[in-house]
């Protein structure tokens, strides 16, 4: 059976629910996203309480901000890369190094709004390396895709779906797929793009923007190769 992905977009952030033997939620949105998330999931026939695991693609508060609210409603346990766990548990965003002019603009526009201690939550599984999703009820694996942050991860599913968090972005109106607006580790980011190009996937689901086909990703990849490699 193929896993199906339900995407709920809240304030420009995509939360993805993977339906497997057990349901995995990938990213939680900003603090306060729970009501919209619950509504969007119910429209797809999924109860919030059915989420067994929450995978956080990286330690930015637009992705982990509602972790605490979710954990108070579900019995879900959180998974994140070891390198981003501290910033998640301390409610920080990390360095946010802007990439290009759109990144600098985003940094200027983005308000620094640290999480309140009452909004913070713990991570049960601090992972590193490649990790199978089988024990979490889904056919697939977690891969390290650093660059946007040191601990950015992606999920590659047997169904051909690749969920990349902010390792790729689709927020610029003139491009469906481009570099993240923040790249904390530029060299790792280029390696991550090469790694993604080597993977067997059909569709990419990003933290911001729409779904991207394999062909669309390769158009981006060719531009990156011309510019950097
Ligand atoms: Zn991010
Ligand atoms: Zn983001």
List keywords for this structure.
binds zinc ion, alpha/beta, six-stranded mixed β-sheet, 229 residues, Metallo-beta-lactamase, Chain A, globular, 12 strands, 29% helix, single chain
Description:
This protein is α/β, with parallel strands linked by helices. The protein has a single domain (4-228), classed as 4-Layer Sandwich (Metallo-beta-lactamase, Chain A), CATH 3.60.15.10. The protein is 29% helix and 24% strand. The protein is built from seven helices and twelve strands. The N and C termini lie far apart (39 Å). It binds zinc ion (ZN) (2 copies).
Q: What layout of secondary structure does this protein have?
A:
Elements: E1 4-10, E2 13-19, E3 23-26, H1 34-43, E4 51-55, H2 61-64, H3 67-73, E5 77-81, H4 82-89, H5 100-109, E6 125-127, E7 131-132, E8 140-144, E9 153-157, E10 161-165, H6 186-197, E11 203-206, E12 212-213, H7 214-228
Parallel strand pairs: 3-4, 4-5, 5-6, 10-11
Antiparallel strand pairs: 1-2, 2-3, 7-8, 8-9, 9-10, 11-12
The chain binds zinc ion (2 copies).
One zinc ion binds next to loops.
**CATH-defined topology:** Metallo-beta-lactamase, Chain A
| Model regions low in confidence, pLDDT < 50 over at least 5 residues | none
Please, how many helices?
Answer: 7
- Percentage of residues assigned to helices: 25-40%
Distance between the termini: 39 Å
- CATH uppermost class: Alpha Beta
The run of helices and strands is EEEHEHHEHHEEEEEHEEH
Number of strands: 12
User: DSSP strand (E) fraction?
Assistant: 15-25%
How would you classify the quaternary structure?
Answer: single chain
Pfam families: Lactamase_B
Domain Metallo-beta-lactamase: 12-208
InterPro entries: Metallo-B-lactamas, NDM-1-like, RibonucZ/Hydroxyglut_hydro
Organism: Anaerotalea alkaliphila
């Amino acid at each position: 059976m193929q896993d199906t992905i339900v995407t709920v977009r809240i304030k420009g952030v995509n939360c993805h629910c993977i339906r497997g033997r057990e349901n995995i939620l990938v990213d939680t949105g900003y603090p306060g996203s729970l009501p919209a998330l619950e509504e969007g999931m119910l429209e797809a026939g999924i109860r919030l309480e059915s989420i067994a695991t929450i995978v956080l693609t990286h330690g930015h508060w637009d992705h982990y901000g509602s972790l605490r609210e979710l954990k108070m409603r579900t019995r879900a346990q959180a998974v994140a890369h070891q390198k981003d766990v501290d910033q998640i548990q301390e409610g920080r965003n990390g360095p946010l190094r802007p990439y290009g002019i759109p990144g600098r603009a985003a940094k200027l526009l983005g308000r620094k709004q640290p999480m309140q201690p009452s909004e913070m939550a713990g991570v049960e599984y601090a992972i590193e390396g490649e990790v199978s999703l089988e024990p979490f009820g889904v056919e697939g694996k977690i891969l390290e895709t650093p660059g946007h942050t040191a601990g950015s991860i992606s999920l590659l599913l047997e169904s051909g779906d690749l969920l990349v968090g902010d390792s790729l972005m689709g927020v610029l109106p003139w491009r469906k797929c481009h570099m993240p607006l923040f790249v904390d580790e530029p060299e790792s980011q280029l390696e991550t793009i090469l790694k993604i190009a080597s993977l067997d996937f059909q569709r990419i689901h990003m933290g911001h923007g729409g779904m991207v086909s394999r062909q669309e990703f390769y158009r981006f990849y060719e531009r990156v190769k011309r510019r950097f490699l």
